[in-house]
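Much of our argument rests on the idea that a fold can be written as discrete symbols. In the encoding step, the backbone of a single protein was reduced to a row of integers, each denoting a local shape. This step matters because it turns folding into a mapping between discrete strings. For completeness, the protein is quoted in full, as a sequence line and a line of structure tokens:
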Amino acid sequence: MATLVAIALLAVVAALFWPPPAALSGQARAVDGDTLRIGDSRVRLVGLDAVELDQNCRDASGAEWPCGREARSFLDRLIEKTTTTCAADGHDRYRRVLARCRAARGDLGEQLVRAGWAVAELEYGLALAEARLNGRGIWAGRFDDPADWRRSHGADDGDFWSWLMGLFGR
């Protein structure tokens, strides 16, 4: 219990000295399927979890394909030659700004999920259902859930820390 209290206290102190920017706007570039860079800021889209950059999926016939790279390419196409605006919602443990972002075509998270490049939380539930029903992107075959893929490849998921920093990092 003392450890949890210490962690919570650390998160509060970090939030006080490391507040998120109110908004970010500018020319963005995709780092991976759910992370952007705007200027010096790395921005993690909230409400979804895209396949990892080095992750492969299998199509309906069982052939492997680089779905993580395709997810990044899709995000790059959404943001190219347009201004991206993000509403910050805290930081994660990797010091990325957690945010909801929009570009010329609308909400980036919704578009990623609807096109089938990410699993999602309830807020993008309709977009997720449409992608699955129509076999778009990763839903055209088989794939490992991104969180499971990270764990099986030695990458720490950080969900607890993202939640904690999001809770206290506003």
The chain is about 35% helix and 25% strand. Residues 2-17 form the longest helix (16 residues). The chain has a mean pLDDT of 85. The first strand starts at residue 23 and ends at 26.
